[in-house]
Amino acid sequence: MTAIRRFLLFTLLFSFDFLSAQTRSPFLEQTIGQQRWVDSVFNNLNRKERIAQLFFVRAHTDRGKAFEDSVASLIKKGKIGGLVFFQGGPVRQLSLTKRYQEIAKTPLLIAMDAEWGLGMRLDSTISYPYQMTLGAIRDTGLIYQMGVQIAKDFKQMGMHINFAPVADINNNPNNPVIGYRSFGDSKYNVAAKTLAYMRGMQDEGILVSIKHFPGHGDTNVDSHKDLPTLNFSRARLDSIELYPFRELIKAGASGVMVAHMNIPALDNTPHLPSTLSVPIVTGLLKNEHQFKGLIISDAMEMKGVVKYFPNGEADVKAIMAGNDIIELSEDTRRAIKLTRKAIRKDQISWDRINESVRKILAAKYWAGLNRPISIDTADLIKKLHRSESVALNQRLSDASVTVLKGDSLLRSLDPASKTAVISLGVTEVSLFQKELKKTFSNSTSFVLSKIASSSDITAMLRELRKYDQIILAVHDYRKRPLSNLDYNSELKIFIAELSKLNTVTCVFANPYTIAGLPGIESSKSLIVNYQNSEEEQRSAVKVISGQMQANGRLPVTINSFFKYGDGIDYFPVPRAVTGQLTED
Fold this sequence. Notes:
- 40% of the residues lie in helices and 12% in strands.
- It is α/β, with parallel strands linked by helices.
- β13 (469-475), α21 and β14 form a beta-alpha-beta unit.
């Protein structure tokens, strides 16, 4: 090669690397710099280390030093490919990440299952709204911005892949595992919102894992506990469950997570989870949908996969099926040994292993792990509470508020009238009540716990006759807001009784809970706020006090009274707040 040709080639390679640092290429578009780095690292791995790259193990900062040291041993001796962080604190996690990266022969790809942001796993961080809440928002641009902010948090934490967003269509109200984690029951709404979230993260340089392929929304079994069966035809799956995944793959999704479900229409092998199915992972996802990105198994410690394939058999079959990343094996060292044994028996080819290793290394390059890793814990909490993030979180909640009925009653509320503000399912005065007091100065706050006695309820009903107007809040304080409220029957009857009056009812809970509150449909005014966050309580106060309009829409069909897409465009009358007029 002449000196001129060598100079031109060097200039070209430098230009590609420089441009990739300035303008990020889509993950699925290879660059010359990426190919050179992948080849270099790949050639430096022995055969056992190549297998180990496929395995991602669990990491915590709330389980003590012995647990942390056991993970360090897997990194140093086992040469694993990555980590999946769970519960803990941000400063502790970032410090531990620094330690782990320093002892890794090949840089680790760090993941987290953070569907509503870091707050899903870490203390002292922001929790954005659940996807069901976001499903009510009509402006997908806000969801794109959320994806961007979550990606910025991930990069601040030295992480590279979010096992999100959820692309499942929750068309089963009794689904025990998806529910509020889904954008709703419309395939079009789910696809549009998932796409916005995905693009926000990928545009900011974070890999995604859309899940749970081929669709976990219409199941009545939690795959963490057992193996669900999807008894639908191929035509039904193509029409509904697979729709969002097809659209997102076309749009350049960098990763797909495969669910643990038995789906006879796609593979009639008895008790075989989709994660372990060659026809589903390789046939459907890779070949039919032409997906070239990372294929990630759902957690391999879940009962949905190990119930019928114990003792490491599931790990080997997941690789055979075509998964690139084996997430959370029950025993990673055992899984690596069994994989080597399967290769020696010609059950798995080295081509199959090498294909996944190269994809994982390509992902590491795209995530910036080809460059020196810089980790800084200084002012971390402040950096994770950027003013734009906090403001966006409130804007998302504001945009989700859905007035289902009774906009005229809302407008007629009188701040000077004697007002009863009741919070149910709580044991102390709620933020909702405290904030409303600023507008309704002549108000009294009442609370009833979810196990309120008949005598307490009767006494309150007697007291409420003294008030001109009633504002009722239904709260669900559970960590997992399921589709049925855990209120006692007396309290549910109390809600029905109040609904017959001129009551403004606000539901800070999973929207499906409305179906389990007979009589609430008679409410003169009904507002859905989807979850019991402080942001949602503030949003409801803004609407009731005339500070904000509401234009959210139901993302699911609840019952015959309230269906997908229902909602009123509510434009309030400004009300006096502590002597000042608040503008719309």
